[in-house]
């Protein structure tokens, strides 16, 4: 079990990809450093231990596969996750053969990346607790991919269930009115019963509970619903 903040090293030469990763992982509670070349990455991995290295293959100086292989030969024991735009099973297999622990193809959602990092920390014994050592037990949503994750587990949701959860997560800890949920999820031209919202909320609660999610969808009588953690009640 870690007595310190888990450390993540991002090796990526494109700023528009690296910056969102840094911000996202820092919000998760990790100590994050960004390096933009393979040479610098190897130097950093020799001098300072990282629990997880997120390694792009298309680096400007040294191919990421070579960085991975050299790091392992030099005794680096942290987890290495390769991310790449290269397609195909061959690259995945080759990457793992070179010493990588996981492989993520671009484009990928930030929620999936977070889940993979937590899984790597648990798998390598570097993190304590069910939340991967980040200190958080919140469900994460990938808005663009329309997927929801709790830890490294994806919670399977219907379209409407995801839309409701997406709004509640965006306003976590605050009440979202029934009218707003109806308007944004079913649109303003919906003429059916608002009971459809209650049915959707009921199914969403059941799925979150079934996945072991500690957060709850709480009804605020006469107003709407709020997503709250176990310590918020």
From TrEMBL:
Protein name per the record: Response regulator transcription factor
GO CC, any one term: protein-DNA complex
SUPFAM superfamilies: C-terminal effector domain of the bipartite response regulators, CheY-like
Annotated GO biological process: regulation of DNA-templated transcription
Feature: DNA-binding region: 122-229
Top-level taxon of the source organism: Bacteria
Keyword terms, alphabetized: DNA-binding, Phosphoprotein, Two-component regulatory system
Domain OmpR/PhoB-type positions: 122-229
A Pfam family: Response_reg
